[in-house]
Amino acid sequence: MKNFILIIALVLLLISCGSNKSFISKSLDKHLATSFYENQFTGVLVVDAASKDTLYNRSAQKYFIPASNTKIFTLFAALKTLPNQIPALQYIEQNDTLYFQGTGDPSFLHPYVKDSTAFNFLKSKSNVVFTTDNFMDTKYGPGWAWDDYQWYYSPERNALPLYGNVVMIKKNPELMVSPSYFKDSVLLISTTENRKETSNIFFYPPQKQDTLETPFITSIATTKAVLEQVLNKNISTRASMPTGVKKTLYGIQADSLYIRMMHESDNFIAEQLLILATSELKDTLNSSFARNHILENELSDLKQEPRWVDGSGLSRYNLFTPQNMVHVLSELYTLVPQERLFTIFPAGGVSGTLKNKFKGDDKPYVYAKSGSLSNNYCLSGYLLTKSGKTLIFSFMNNHFKKATRDERTQLERMLQTLRDHY
Questions:
Q1: Which residues form a coiled coil (predicted)?
Q2: Which of 36, 96, 254, 336 is least surrounded, with the fewest CB atoms within 10 Å of its CB?
Q3: How many domains is the chain partitioned into structurally?
């Protein structure tokens, strides 16, 4: 009798699940068939995290421009390669001289992360030599827009970032500039530019009150000069490290960078995390090596090979499928405990770029990474249903001319259908 009851209960459960899946499929089909979506490209994949059952699939095998959804792959790469504390510097001490090189760590006196581990370490040494030949990458990623050079979201990449590779300018009430090395390079002029394209000359409108963040042009000479001023000591440079066993100085907790990258969609930290990943794999720093290593060794079973060209998603050369996104999100769900994982991802209605979007009734139901470029909006992550299940999803929308807020409104209705009916 007990076995019979169990069989009946199982049958009813299967019927219920099938009915729910059918309702969701019909509901999303109907929504995506409306005139709103007729002139754009949309790919969707929704999977049950526990059973791996596919609840909904539309063009999930097709390639889309992911924008900042690329950071999901960067997060995976960082978690697979980096220790819990970020490698801040590599160094060799010989006699009374410290030779050091950058690892790509973005946190050195970063205006928001504000790690001072490397600063305190270098400050404590008398004779310091900065070695410079380990960075074998470009300042900008492939396909980045050339005219983004002056905007906060597009700092240059390098081996030893300082202050996030941006200049912070504000009035309080006097003009305050950080790093102060650039104070004499700021002109109080009203202009459409924040900086000269080819030099570190910055512009700040006299009537402006809030903070202006502008990337500065990096070089070995600039890094040396900024370091000398902030450390208040002379620094020598040479091409390579001397012969010997390099030691590593460890700094900030890695999750601090992951949370900043995912919550604020910080492009600079994303780019530098790939460079940092390379520092754990080989002696030279080149982000393409880290990307290739992950694709060949950790994600060789992807159903479609993505085109992955940067860490941030600034480039329109990136191409990923919804299946790519759900695959990596599933790997993360297995790799990282849920509480920690959901802390790293923005929570709908609560934190980061989702603070004012996808709100739950009394608690978050969406933990996801958004991705926006003009005419493109993607959202991929995790959804908690009212029945207590966890779904992994990727919605990728490309080539629309409507307002992004309207895309989010339409997407929110579909997410609510998933939340309420599965």
A1: none
A2: 96
A3: 2
